[in-house]
Amino acid sequence: MVHPQAVNSPICVGESTMLMPLSEGGSGNYTYTWTGPGGFQSTAIEPTVTPAQTSTYHLVVDDGFTQFEGDVTVQVNPLPVINLIPTGAHVFGTDTILACVFDTLTLSAASPNGSYLWSNGATSPDIQTATTGIAFDILSYSVDVVNSLTGCENSASITIMFTYGECSYSIEEPGASLKLFVFPNPGKGIYSCRYESPGQPLKLEIFDIQGKLLQNKELPESLNGYAETEINIESAAAGVYLLKVSNDNICKVIRLVKYE
Fold first, then answer.
1. Which residues, other chains included, contact 85 with Cβ-Cβ below 8 Å and sequence gap of 6+?
2. Sign (positive/negative) of CA torsion 168, 173, 179, 182?
3. Looking at the 3D structure of the chain, how many domains does it have?
4. Are residue 127 and residue 51 in the same domain, yes or no?
């Protein structure tokens, strides 16, 4: 006779369990053939399996005279599902998002029957996060979630890059129509400035937040409608600066953010 069993069942996704034949009778000189989902086969007496979902394994025991057969089902419980990306967020990578430096974000790890432990010590399903609003910042959080009914545990992490580039940061004077792109912004001091060339001379000026002029130069024009120039403020301290591109008819100002 054969009465196969699993040492541990139920288990959680990613966990393993050992199958035991619990055979008796016959000649006592047994051979074992296990089969299961996904083409699983084994001739081990007690094979270890790691099923991704609830699965049934079939065992044939041969004592040289008679074959005995039996089945064992391993129940697999799912892990808590965690999605820390807020709805509508600007996703920069699999676990990184971009946000305006003035934003307050809610991160939710809510899961049925969940208990929670965040990297900041919070034990609630949701937490709120924000930065000072005065400079580029990067904040990272992680959370462990345990299903109180099954004991299955999962974790997730998220990194938030707070930048002025995610804010409505353009400041336009009346009648402004100039298309202006600066990248990377925030940056470490060297930026590419791409701008629409209106067929008239343009002047570029950079001010600190107190209004002190740091740089100014005439901008080259381009026959194809756009031109590009380099901005270098590597020697300046980290912080927020104002970049102004203008002539007698056009004026556009954007915030330029430098970080260490």
1. 91, 97, 158
2. negative
3. 3
4. no
Backbone angles phi, psi at 52, to 5 degrees: -85, -15
Residue 250 forms part of a structural domain: yes
Question: Which residue type, as a one-letter code, is found at position 101?
Answer: V
Q: Where are the beta strands (DSSP E) in 86-136?
A: 90-93, 96-100, 104-108, 114-118, 126-130
Domain of residue 121, residue span: 90-165
Q: Which residue, 111, 140, 165, sits at the end of a domain? A: 165
Q: What is the pLDDT of residues 220-229, one digit of tens each?
A: 776 667 888 8
Cis-peptide, bond into residue 174, ω within 30° of zero: no
What CATH number has the domain bearing residue 200?
2.60.40.3080
Cβ(76)–Cβ(12) below 8 Å: yes
Peptide bond into 10 cis (omega under 30): yes
**65 vs 80, higher pLDDT:** 80
pTM given for the model: 0.61
Q: How many CA atoms lie within 13 A of 42 on its CB side?
A: 18
Helix (H, G, I), strand (E, B) or coil at 165: helix
